[in-house]
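Question: Hello, beginner here. Any chance you could explain the protein record under this note? Any guidance would be welcome.
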Amino acid sequence: MVQVCQSTIIDAPIEEVWRVLRDFNGHDRWHPAIASSEIENGEPVDAVGSVRRFRLADGGELREQLLSLSDKDFRLTYCLLESPLPLMGYVASIRLKPVTDGDRTFWEWRSDFHPPANRREELVRLVTDGIYRAGFAAIRKLLRENAPRNASPAPAPVAIQREAPPKVRPVGQLLGTAAASRTKAIVVERHGGPEVLQFREIELPAPGHGEVQVRHTAIGVNFIDVYCRTGYFKLLTPPGVPGMEAAGVVEAVGPGVTGFAVGQRVAYACAPVGAYCERRNIPTQLLLHLPDDISDDIAAAGLLKGVTASFLLHDVHALKAGSVALIHAGAGGVGQLLVQWARHLGATVITTVSTDDKARIVERLGAHHVVVYSRENFADAVMQITSGRGADVVYDAVGNDTFGGSLEALGVRGHLVSFGQASGPVGEWDIDRMASKSITVSRPNYGHYTDTPEKLVPHAERFFAALRQRTVSVEAPARYALEDAAQAHRDLELRRSTGSIVLGV
C-alpha cells in the first residue's frame, strides 16, 4: 500500500474553492490533464455513487466513482474503477479547512493505492506531481482569473509544497539502503544547567516507515530548549537530545515515504526534540519543503520564532490597528519579529530592552517607544506614553522579572500574553487582583498551535510571505559550532545575544 498526501494553501475563501471541487464532473474545466468528462446515466454531479468517465489529454480513458460528499465538512471521497494505469485499489479524498486568518483555504489531497513494485516510483510521482500539484496550480489560476477586476490582487502564495516536480531518484536507490550508523549529537544525561549539554556520538538507525533521514546544516537555538534542558517542560526525558528547529538536506528515505526525495532541502520547527545533532530521522508530516529563496541559516534561525510570532499576533491576541502593544525583550529573537510585525499591523509599539545598544536595535526595527528597564520603571513609562490609558496587550517572554509590572502596564480589559519565562517562573498570583481592570491572562503552548500540518503550515506560510514582502526581516544569526551548544545556552540565558542563534554542523 502506498499513501500519497499533498497539501497547500489557496488564497480564496473556502466556499469558492469548494464550489469548484464539489462538482464531480467539473475537473475538465480546470485540471490540465483532463480533456473531457461526463457523468454516466445523467446522474447529478453531487450524487453519491455517480460515475464520471473522462478522457485524459494524452488519450487515456478512466472511470471514477463518487463515494461520499459533505458540504458541511468540505470533504469528498472517490475511487478509481477503470484506468489504463495500474493504480490498484486507488481511493482518494479531498478535504478543505478555512485558514484562521483571512479568506484563505487549507486543501489536503490524499490517496491510497497498490502499484506494481517495478512502477512504484513512476506512479507515485505521477499522482503527486501530475495530478495533485498540477491541480493545486490550476485551481489557483482559475480563481485568479475569475476574481473581480476591481479586487486587490492577493499576495502570491508561499509554496511550502512546491508545484514544480521534484528531482526524484529511483526508489530502488532510496528505500531500505540506509543502514544503521552513528552521528554526533548533544546529549542531556540529566536535567540541569548548560554544563549538562554533552557532545558525543550516538547510534542512528535507518529511517523507519514514513521517515526520512535529514543531514542538518543549521540548528536553531531557542528558549524552549532551555526549558527542556532544565526539565521545566516535560519534552525531554534524559538521556535525550534537545532541539526543536533545524534546516538541512534529505539524505535517505524510509519505506512508505512520498513527496520527499534525497537532496531536497527541508526544515522543521516542532516536537519531538532531537535537533541538536548532525543527522536525525524524522516523520515527513513534520517537515516543510524549504523554498529556494529562504536560506538554511534564516530558516533555522527564524522558523520557530516566526511561527511563534504569527500565532501570538493573529491567534492568541489578534492585534488590531490602533492598539497599544507592549513587547518585552524587543531585541531578542521573537521580540524583533513581534516589533516589526506589530508595527506593520498598525499598532503603537512600546518595547523594553536591557541596554542602550539593544535600544538602538529596536529603534531601527520600528518601535515607536523604547524603555530601558534597567534604569526606568516600564509600567510607569507605559502609563505616561498612553496618557494613563495603558496597553491593550502585553507580550511577555521574560516572566518573573516583568509579570507584575506587565499587569500594572495594562489598561482596562487588557490582555497579558505570557509566552516565556527567561527570568524564571512567574510564581503564584491572586486572580482577584486582576478584576480591578478585568485583565485577561494567556499562557500559550507552542505545541498546541503547531501539532498538525493544518495548524503549522498556515503560520509557516505567513512567516515566509512576511519575509518576502519585507514586513519582517531576520538578521544573520550568531553561529556556534554544535559542540559549543553549552556556551550558546549561557549567552542566551544571560541575554548576551541579540537576535537569533544557530548551531553549525
Remarks:
- The radius of gyration is 25 Å.
- Residues 149-177 have pLDDT under 50 and may be disordered.
